[in-house]
Amino acid sequence: METLLVKLVQLGAMGLIGFTLYTSFLLIRESKRGAYKFMGFALGCSFLAAGVEAFKLLHPAQISIHISPAKPMLANLPPPTVSVRGANLTMGENGEADIILTPGDSVKFSYENTLIKLITDRDIALAKSSNDAGGSSDEAP
Amino acid sequence: MKRLNKLTCILLVFLAQICFADDPIQPQYKGADATAVDNAKNLRLAQRYNESIDLLLPIVKREPAYYRAMYQLALACAERAQSVSRQPNDIENADKWFRLAIAEKERLNAAGTPLNEYTIYNSYGWFLMETGHFKDAEMSLLKGLNELDKLPSVQSQQRVLNNLAIVYKRQGRFDEAAALSKKAIALGSVTAQKNFIEIQQMSKAKIQK
Fold it and tell me: Which domains does chain B have, with CATH numbers?
């Protein structure tokens, strides 16, 4: 809702600047006095708004990342570790997470434990069919 | 004719001895119960888990300190849990019977009359590995490792070593896993050879990281 309001205000401001530019253009065509001042004001506002947007792009205050749940992929795996600013974040049991970053932050995803689990699960499956690993079911007295 | 009758009698007595032999581990359990446990084991190995469990349950109820019956019951529940005929409480029951059997074994050990049977530590460790309890599996397998020389075969020893190596590998303890795999290789384990190469690669990757 908040985002929508901000977008509406931005749209309104752009419309106002556009209208001012159009009006000043009409005034210049009619050679009215003060038309250039009027246009200069509109252009100034446009450049200012563009400058603010460009600054925001170059220096973001916050970035929000959402990782969606991925149950089929992670059904039998522990969630990967996500580390931000050196601190580990807990992901949901289906691998979902909401991460908010500030400038200078780095995100590190670690799948090491997940890979080790995958490998050992495969080892257990192989051990079941081998004679030199697995249970002692056949040797139990 | 007389000689034939004598021979038949001797054969019948011999067969009766075999059929109603005392328990090989706990001789105080005689005849019928020991035979029933043997039958239950055969049924379990033939994947007839329900019949095996039905045969063992009355015995463990009647003889709550009968180690071999509890051990077989634990295995039957654990194996049924992985079969199509699994029942909702099979895992919990298997765990319960494993614990009771091990408790009885350790009680007898403390009383100075140890049972000459050590495969249960690997069986329980393997059961815990399969159910995802790697920390507990490690404890049981370590007990098996302590009794390595008392295990009935080289294959048994290889199993303990390889299973514990998998547990360590899972925890990222590659040095300990590699040491166990080396021991298993020395005993001729093929699985350990494959495992050892992989453990070395994983260990190397961890160091480079």
Answer: 28-110 (1.25.40), 118-209 (1.25.40.10)
| Predicted model pTM | 0.67
The shortest CB-CB distance from A136 to any of B129, B159, B191 is to: B159
Domain ranges, ordered by start, for chain A? 2-58, 67-128
Alpha-carbon span B141 to B129, nearest angstrom = 10
What residues in A contact B170, CB-CB < 8 Å?
116-117, 120
Task: Using CB atoms, pick whichever of B123, B190, B192 lies closest to residue A136.
Answer: B123
Q: Taking the C-alpha atoms of B40, B45, B46 and B51 in order, what is their torsion angle to the nearest 10 degrees?
A: 30
How many contacts, defined by CB atoms under 8 Å, are there between A and B?
A: 83
ipTM rounded to 2 decimals: 0.76
Q: How far apart are CA A98 and CA A66, in angstroms?
A: 5
Q: pLDDT for B2-22, tens place per residue?
A: 565 665 645 544 444 444 567
Closest-CA residue of chain B to A135: B123
Angle between helices B67-81 and B120-130 (to 10 degrees): 20
Q: State whether A135 and B166 contact (CB < 8 Å).
A: no
Which residue of A117, A133, A140 is in closest CB contact with B119? A140
Q: Contact A135/B159, CB-based, under 8 Å? A: yes
Retrieve residue A41's tokens: 């004001």
Structure tokens, A47: 């450049």
Nearest Cα residue in chain A from B151: A139
pLDDT in tens, B29-86: 877 889 999 999 999 999 999 999 999 999 999 999 999 999 999 999 999 999 999 9
Cβ of B131 under 8 Å from any chain A Cβ? no
Instruction: Name the nearest CA neighbour of A126 among B203, B130, B80, B201.
Output: B130
Judged by phi (left if over 0) then psi (alpha if -120 to 50, else beta), residue B14 lies in: alpha
In the prediction, which pLDDT does B175 show? Answer: 92
